[in-house]
Each structure stands twice: as structure tokens, then as C-alpha cells.
Amino acid sequence: MTIRDVAQAAGVHVSTVSRAFSASHLVKRETRERVLAIAADLGYRPNETARALTTGRTRNLGLIVSDIANPFYPPLIKAAQAYARVRGYQVFVADTDEDVAVEEELIRTLARQVDGVILVSPRLANDVIGRLGGELPFVLVNRSVAGLSAVLMDVAHGAALAVEHLAGLGHEHLALVGGPRGSWTSAQMRRAAGRAAADQGVRLDVLAPNPPTEHGGIVAAPAVLETGATGVIAYNDLVAIGLIEGFDDRGVRIPRDLSVIGVDDTVAGRLNRPRLTTVAMPTAAAGRTAVDLLIQTVETSGGGPATAQTVLATSLVVRDSTATPAHPAG
């Protein structure tokens, strides 16, 4: 199968097929998607070795996450890999294990092997990310740094929805169990939840920083109980599940005695008992969008950093871990 066969089947010139794979920003989106779909149906694959010699590109992308064991990341990774493959790219995935030193080391290591890097929920300081982004095309997910493209999931809106949901049930004292130090998501949640709590006339206690893990939730459980809050919003589903486990060890039943809300809408939260009320994050869409932005940056003349920013909507999924407070105030 050759590029001419694809062009004939798509009803376009050979050069259009070539641009659809190697310079997609020069082709209308509808045409590009039609060409790529026909190429996939016909089993056409570009000669990557020849293209690399011509363009100086590897057709490889880096994707760095903070904890690959966290169930938030696999849907994002799978979506990014699948979309990159359709566009003629491969994705190298690396895990920092929440270590900023490892994160910077991985970026520098991958820079020699890829055309650009997607950083998901990075922990590095903004100035470090900005400096590294000046050396290699970057796209950030859930982090905003001036001069770099970003895909942001609107967790602030989700946190506000969580506060409004609990206040609507009659909770007047809430707790927010935040995430790790340096987390953009945790900072967004804290600000938005604080504003929403003030608007709703409820008290909000913030407990942070905390490890973004199930164990982190277990450890934080006693401190939450000490606040006297009747409703809790956790940094993510893993922390929420850990909180529920920690509460259960102390005879506190969910949602009879305490309501709990997570963030992410992972499989773990859906399988937990009680099933977890949570803020659904569009992880698969974020993976595809980040790859698309990075490829646009890589294929733009000069390969300089882009400044596009995409915000993806979040929503509240109400399940079994929230209810009216057992002993409402007054």
C-alpha cells in the first residue's frame, strides 16, 4: 500500500496525504481526519525512517505522569497513545513517583529521544518548567505556565459543585483534604471550594498538603474527624477511599455519619462500597487534546512553544457516599 493509493481513495493529491501525516496544521481538519481514516482502513503506514531523515524528527512523544499506579492516569495514557498512533507518532511513558528531581531528570533524558513532551500534573516549579519548555516543545496537563500550551480540566468548577451539593444536603461544616505540595489541582480546588463555601454560608476547614494516595487518606482521617466536619471533599478518589477506610476503622459509617466526595471518577471509586460520589474528570479527552496540541507545536515552523490553552468541563456524579447529615445543626 502506497501513499498514491491513499490519495486515490481519498480523492486528494499525494501532497495532501503527505501533509496530513507530517504537517497537519496545513490541512483542513475534515480533510485530515478523512485521509487518516482511509489510510488506517487501507493499512498504510509512512516510512518513518525516511521521514526522520528528511524532517529531523523522531515521530516519538514523551508523556510524563506523577504516579502511573494512580487509576486516574491509565485512561489518559491509553487515549494519548491511541490518538498519537493514528497521527503517525509513538508515545514513551515515564513515571516520576511524585519526585520533582526525577521529573526534571526524565524530561532531560526524554528530550534526546522525542520531538516533544506532555507533562501531566507536574510538581516542578513554574520557572523550571518554563526554562525546560524553552528547550523542547511542551504541553502541560492540569498546570498553567506562561508561554506553554496547556490542557486544563476545570477542577475548580468541580470543587464548587461538590461544596454546593453538600450544602444543599444540609451540611454546614465541611473539610477539604488537599493534595501534595506544588499541585496545581490542589490549589485550584482550595480556592474554588473556599469561594463556594463563603457563597453557601458554610464553614470549610482545609487540611493540606497530603500524599495523593489511599494511605494518605487513611492518615488524614483522624485530623478530619477532629474538625467536626460532616462533609468531606478529597483531593482525588484514592484519598477519598483511604478516608472512608480510616473512618471505618474508627466506627464512623459513610454516609450515615459523614459524607465523602472524591475527584476523578475512577473505576476504584465506582467499585468502592459505598459507591463514591465524585467529580468526573475528562481524562481521555485530555490525553487526546494534549497530543493534538503537542503535534501542532512540533509541526509548526520552528517548533517553538505554543500558547494555546484548552479547558475541559467537569461534572459531579452523585452516588452513595453523600447524604443529609445525621445531626443537622440547630
From TrEMBL:
Origin: domain of life: Bacteria
| Statement: the UniProt record of this protein carries the keyword Transcription | yes
Q: Which InterPro entries match?
A: HTH_LacI (IPR000843), LacI/GalR-like_sensor (IPR046335), Lambda_DNA-bd_dom_sf (IPR010982), Peripla_BP_I (IPR028082)
Gene3D superfamilies, per the entry: 3.40.50.2300, lambda repressor-like DNA-binding domains (1.10.260.40)
Signal sequence residues: none
Where is the HTH lacI-type domain positioned along the sequence? 1-55
SMART domains the UniProt entry points to: HTH_LACI
| Presence of keyword Repressor | yes
* Protein name stated in the entry: LacI family transcriptional regulator
Q: Which organism is it from?
A: Streptomyces clavifer
Keywords, A to Z, come to: DNA-binding, Repressor, Transcription, Transcription regulation
